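3.2 Worked example (two chains)
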Amino acid sequence: MAAAGPRALALLRVRPSGLALALGLGAAGAHLALWGPHAPWGQAGPAGLVLATGGLAWALWAAALLRAAGTSIGPAVLPRVLVDEGPYRLGRHPMYAGTAWLLLGLALGLGVPLLAAAAALFTGIVATVHVPHEEAQLLARFGGWYRDYAGSVRRWL
């Protein structure tokens, strides 16, 4: 992995869950400032609820599997175990994917398009900052096991 710049290092210190929360609150605040409580392009409550609930469940399932395996869910901590079951069979970063789905579901359900932008920004940041760092850690820790896993499982879905 190439040396990270100062901004990337600063973003690595921010937990992805905190990043998602900050982006989501910022998007909601900007929406209120621009449109007030109104949904300018409508709401899709049931579809948004399904997407948001599914994303939250997906991320929590992935986190529970890491905890059950005795490894940290924090991106700054060197992993102790390579988990390749549950949602990790379908994508290497299910907690990030689930968080993005949660933000998209909230955008759809509440009619807050800036939350969709927050989901895109969250995904872009974790894809360019957190994921390369974590994958380098996993490769250093597990070597060929991780290389085989990464070769057979997509990064996202």
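3.2.1 Second chain
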Amino acid sequence: MKFDFTDEELQLNKKGLLSEKQKQVLKAMAYSIRRSSISGLWFMLFFLALGTCITGAVTLSARDSRNFQIVGLQTVAALCFAVVAGLTIYSISIFFSYRRAAKWEVAPLLSAEGIISHGSDYSSNSGLRSYYVYFGKQRFSFPDEMNRTFPEGSTFRIYYCKVGQIELIMSFERLT
């Protein structure tokens, strides 16, 4: 895994500041969160339309029965409820996505330091192995082993931004 930061960015991070490039990375993260939340709209509308068509076909197939007016009214009421409920849930989802994106745009720069130790977990359900690097007590997850970048027993300081469960490494330095 290649970390893309310059010595200037490391010096700014030591002062508790982010470089313009790092700020752009955070803004890009926020932008992608907003875009992904809105892109689901087409998916939801497709399934609302599909459900409406299936319900309409089932209702029309029952039109010869004596209860057609009652069934028709119940079906229209159920469809209206489903549309309103779906749009409400989707709107709440967009609200929380935009809120999380706004937090990324102003994410504070944090740091952790300590003696490096490594760990890993294997999930038999997914068949994937997760790798961890501990900077003292702070744990970071990686998709690959990081023994070459962070040798066991050495001391590092890492600068990162965290919102929710996601941690984004900005820079790091070896202390000893």
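3.3 Remarks
The chain has two domains: 27-105, 108-174.
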